């Protein structure tokens, strides 16, 4: 993940006009997932927005950092707002399994200080912790000295993201889906009452007219020799018709788990396969 800091008197106004969530609902104790859309309502990137006393932090996949910075800066114009890549000066630590003694936040996307900024991720005992590199190193040292904590790997963390339907994706899936197709509305990341933002007309029309034709699902398949590629088509195994695509995937402990965006208009077929060299069967284990 990478981190963008947005500062200036017009920072909130800038973000309110670009992101799907209601920036005015954020506080020192509540963050939000959100979508940054193009004019056609397609999500350029999903973001986690955290409010600090003097700025806003945007957490997003590192693969989309340059794209988001470039496109957001196009909307600054004369506003008193500045966007800076703070990935090098603010580190992001992921922790699984914090016990109650840590006094960490427990509600979805709630924010606490323990003593660093700590955000609760949904549907699992997982948190993100933000801090300067020396603060993060000190915090890790504390965990290891006083508690039974071990270092994990990025593949396992990504696997857990997918298992809880967090719709992170890379640049290959940028500007392909409207927010509802990624389940951002189910995670509380879309406001339908806050007013205009880029792509709002398409997002609102899909909501009020009920015309969302695709949805997000969690799926599993056997790891293939060639590896599963994000954006790979998912086919009806009988008709060979395209049903959607792979949004993101991760392999952990021999299991390939993926987020897939699939058509829902006529129901899902029972036999789904990947459009790869092996026509790998893929099984839906949960909707988002």
TrEMBL record:
Domain of life here?
Answer: Bacteria
Q: What InterPro entries would the database entry show? A: GCVT_N (IPR006222), YgfZ/GCV_T_CS (IPR017703), YgfZ/GcvT (IPR045179)
Q: Which residues are in the GCVT N-terminal domain? A: 1-97
Name it: Folate-binding protein YgfZ
What is the source species?
Answer: Methylomonas fluvii
């Amino acid at each position: 993940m990478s981190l963008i800091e947005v500062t200036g008197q017009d920072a909130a106004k800038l973000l309110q006009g670009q992101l799907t969530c209601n920036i005015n609902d954020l506080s020192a104790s509540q963050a939000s997932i959100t979508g940054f859309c193009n004019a056609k309502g397609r999500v350029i990137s999903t973001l986690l927005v955290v409010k600090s006393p003097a700025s806003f932090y945007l957490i997003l996949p590192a693969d989309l950092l340059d794209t988001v910075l470039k496109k957001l800066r196009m909307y600054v114009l004369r506003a008193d707002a500045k966007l800076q890549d703070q990935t090098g000066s603010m580190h992001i630590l992921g922790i699984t399994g914090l016990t109650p003694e840590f006094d960490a936040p427990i509600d979805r996307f709630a924010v606490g200080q323990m003593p660093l900024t700590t955000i609760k991720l949904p549907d699992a005992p997982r948190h993100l912790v933000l801090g300067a590199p020396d603060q993060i190193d000190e915090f890790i040292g504390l965990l290891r000295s006083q508690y039974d904590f071990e270092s994990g790997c990025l593949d396992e963390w990504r696997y857990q993201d997918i298992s809880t339907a967090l719709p992170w994706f890379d640049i290959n899936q940028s500007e392909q889906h409207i927010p509802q197709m990624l389940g951002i509305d189910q995670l509380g990341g879309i406001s339908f009452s806050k007013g205009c933002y880029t792509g709002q007309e398409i997002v609102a029309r899909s909501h009020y007219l009920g015309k969302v034709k695709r949805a997000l699902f969690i799926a599993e398949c056997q790891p293939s020799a060639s590896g599963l590629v994000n954006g790979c088509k998912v086919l009806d195994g009988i008709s060979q018709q395209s049903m959607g695509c792979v949004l993101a995937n991760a392999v952990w402990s021999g299991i390939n788990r993926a987020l897939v965006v699939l058509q829902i208009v006529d129901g899902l077929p029972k036999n789904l396969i990947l459009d790869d060299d092996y026509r790998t069967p893929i099984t839906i284990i949960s909707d988002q």
